Amino acid sequence: MKTGDLTLVKQINKSIVLNEIEKKGPISRAQISKDTGLNKTTVSTMVSELIEDKLVNELGQGQSSGGRKPVMLYFNTHAGYAIGIDLGVNYILAVLTDLSGEIVEEESVPLSDQSAEEIMQALRSLIRSLIEKSPDSPYGVVGIGIGAPGIVDPEGLILFTPYLDLNQVNLKQILEDEFNIPTLIDNEANTGALGEHLYGAGKNAMNLIYVSVGIGIGTGIIINGQLYKGATGISGEMGHLTIEVNGRKCSCGNRGCWELYASESALLTEAKKLEYFKDTSSITLDHIESEAKKGNKDVLRLLHTIGEYNGVGLVNIINTFNPDMLIIGNRMARFENWIMNPIKSVLDDRLSPFHGNAVNLTVSSLGKYSNALGASAFVISKFLDINRVKVI
Amino acid sequence: MKTGDLTLVKQINKSIVLNEIEKKGPISRAQISKDTGLNKTTVSTMVSELIEDKLVNELGQGQSSGGRKPVMLYFNTHAGYAIGIDLGVNYILAVLTDLSGEIVEEESVPLSDQSAEEIMQALRSLIRSLIEKSPDSPYGVVGIGIGAPGIVDPEGLILFTPYLDLNQVNLKQILEDEFNIPTLIDNEANTGALGEHLYGAGKNAMNLIYVSVGIGIGTGIIINGQLYKGATGISGEMGHLTIEVNGRKCSCGNRGCWELYASESALLTEAKKLEYFKDTSSITLDHIESEAKKGNKDVLRLLHTIGEYNGVGLVNIINTFNPDMLIIGNRMARFENWIMNPIKSVLDDRLSPFHGNAVNLTVSSLGKYSNALGASAFVISKFLDINRVKVI
DNA sequence: ATACTTTGTTTAATGAATAAACTAAATAGG
DNA sequence: CCTATTTAGTTTATTCATTAAACAAAGTAT
Fold it and tell me: Which GO terms describe its biological process (chains A, B) (predicted)?
């Protein structure tokens, strides 16, 4: 059983000090002591250790505030690096970040046939390349994080992923065996939620829901600053909330699922029915966006409708979680200009007044990087072993 | 800021020891040491303190297992008492429990006009009476917990409650001023969830959703063993999930809310339309249950439909939370025999196979007491100040 | 009767946080 | 320019947790 002892106390306080330096650095020992309530002596001891650990450096003297000049400390973001991978349906985006989540290298490849061989080969070569490009550092590449579409079990086994030929593949095991670097796989909505929580729009939100609207809709749930994954790791399938009880059958087995009305697939399906696109063989989001920019009435009306359906689902999420913040991510986010108003008017209409203005709704601030950055953040947090991110 | 120090360590370990005695008592010091990993010395120290605190007693010698006989310890459930109150729409049920949640006294009164005066007077007299009846004990009555229908803010202010004339009343403040006993008010779904989690069917579930199906539908969310209340304390309004996007307007502002189809109100409304009840002026649940028992076809068909609608909402909950356990409580629970099968067949139909048999679905095991017992458990936990229950 | 086991306490050691005293180095004000 | 004051950071001694080891108490097994 997890009991309390002195090492626990030290761990807690060391985390607090490191966190403080990360968030507020450059900062002096004295300031940390004032801000945290920890004794000056304790702070000094922790800082010494962190400097030995190469996680913190001294910057030099800062401004005096009427007495001896403080020694400023900063988080050594170059103590190690992490790889974050966005495993998309037709692309793989891989980033190398420093320990602050700053992107230092970036590579991507398109996927053509989604076969296991193609994907694995692309992953291997991307990872190998980023490892080679990673600057010399005390800890090297500290982890590989992957955000994948589909259902991933807590051991890193991909239980089910539509479109990709990776069902029942234990990606974590395979990559750890090959690269000997701690690896984490999770659903892209979960990694996206983490990314936004740690580095994006959700920095100050302890309870946030990240809504990944792509081909389907998935949600990443951050509760009390921690990722919630449920009993068997498959929570957050809110794309499959029924919003039409006798609606169309969904591939998940349910009927009238939200994502049938509000996702990228829904958008493309409905666009196909428009007069304007009747001669277009395969419609893309680019087509739709360019028409929307041109002011194509039918496309605007369609986006309005899709926005409204997004709003209906968001009302459900708010009624369930009463979150501090809602973040819309993935590919639907590019239509922000056209869907945000209908979403907001649906919220106004349908939300009980007790929610008032409490909910903060926004579009992903990390854009196409939220998934890859979240995956990277995940492994960084694991490396730093501070309680910034825990999976419930 | 909350930092680590020795008192924290002690608090953690003392909690562990007390919890162990609560759960496994009678138990010896040696056994606690083995089970928890705490050193024998530490356990002895904590036990001495707990005995001084009157929270633990020595029972006498136990069975030898090949050496010196152990001294068995047990949790002194009579060290104090707690009052738990189920504030219903047309009744108030108040229980006095010992520290183990065992009911030692019970009183209830019907409500006739739901006026603030009637309710406050009834509450006062119930509380006063239970305090008088509480046996002599080291700590006396350690808290008053109240589960109320409606929306309660974190400070105990009732923001909104349908049917009761208590809107904007700060019940907590009023009762604390009068009785000088720590008081907690929460939504009845939250207290119900706590009751089932601590003393009922959900004892072993760390992630559970308690679905209170009464006049409306509310949900109490326990995540990682802790009650989740959301950013402003109004999470869990899953009765207002839209299941028909263009459905009837609900009083909450939304459309096609789940509770319009699956609650007690829905049952009564639909029952009114049945040929059999056309001459009954005011139909009650008793009427319906007695007809169901007699095998009235129309009533059975109606209950089947209501069950199916309950199933639809439960699928939504499972897709969202992937919980260890789902517990159906409040008045709809009495129809278990007629609604459980339709619910289960809807789950079979609509749930993705990845949920398999992972979800444990059951009806409240505390029956009409789950709300009152949860309210009592809430204040007991606060009193014991062990981390058994924390509100996120 | 003797060896062994199990329970629980006493004793001494370890390691964490911290208050107080101290050193170092600045500013401020005459 | 000099002294008092302020601020930063370290050294020292104390307090208070857990714990390992030795020990005492009280049983069982043979």
Answer: D-xylose metabolic process
